[in-house]
Amino acid sequence: TQTMFRSIVRPVVVKPIIEQVRFYRYLTKPLPTVYEPLPKKITGKSVMQYVEEKLLSKYDPTGKRRALIRNNKEGLRSGDIIKVTYLDRSDVTGRIIAIKRSHNSIGSNILIRTKLNKVGSEVRIPVYNPNIRNIEVLEKPEKYLPRTKQYYIRETSRLDVDDVEAYIKRKTGEQQKTKHAKK
After folding, report:
1. What pTM does this model have?
2. Chain CA centroid to CA 67, Å
3. Burial, 9: exposed, middle or buried (Cβ in 10 Å; 0-12, 13-18, 19+)?
4. Which residues contact 104 (CB under 8 A, 6 or more apart)?
5. What structural domains does the chain harbor?
6. pLDDT of 18 over the 90 cut
7. pLDDT tens digits, residue range 20-48?
8. CA angle 91, 95, 101 (to 5 degrees)
9. The pLDDT value given to residue 149
10. Which residues form a coiled coil (predicted)?
């Protein structure tokens, strides 16, 4: 019986296995730090309050934009005409329809409306946008319309805004004429 199995079993030849050798390249420079160090623990404040205060101090160091957003007489209200100037010297003029004030005002934005070539256009402007150079109040109306968000002026032709830039030019021209007439 053993001779019978010998013919069936074949001898196994072991071939030498060549292993690839890996070369490691050690860095001569130290690894850069991935994360900035964590701030020290703030007692009495939540993390969100701390982050919002840091962002407010970064994007509004003078506090001018915070004063515009406050809900008081000096702040912006719906119905005011403003001019927003960007860093690339382009500007947008319009009447405020709505102001979205977030909790700590970092996400606040202003919705302004104007008409260009008899077509109404609206622009939503983030107040703390770093590309904004200046937000300037051109005119405050004598009497404000009701409600703080005046979305209803879109449908009514009687209340809808006209070309705001042309209105401001006319008004400044009239003021200059009255100054010259008084002299």
Report:
1. 0.66
2. 18
3. exposed
4. 49, 52, 53, 56
5. 55-177 (2.30.30.790)
6. no
7. 556 566 656 777 778 877 777 777 778 88
8. 95
9. 80
10. none
CA within 13 Å, CB half, 123 = 14
Do the bridges between strand 119-126 and strand 109-116 make them parallel or antiparallel, or are there none, so unpaired? antiparallel
Instruction: State the DSSP string of the chain.
Output: -HHHHHHHPPPPPPPPPPPPPP-----SSPPPPSSPPPPPPPTTS-HHHHHHHHHHHHH-SS-HHHHHHSSSSSS--TT-EEEEEETTS-EEEEEEEEEE--TTSTT-EEEEEEEETTEEEEEEEETT-TTEEEEEEEE--SSPPSSSS-GGGGT-TTTS---HHHHHHHHHHHHHHHHHHH-
Tokens 């927003």 locate to 84
- Token pair, residue 67, equals 């004063």
- Which residues are paired to 112 by β-bridges? 96, 123
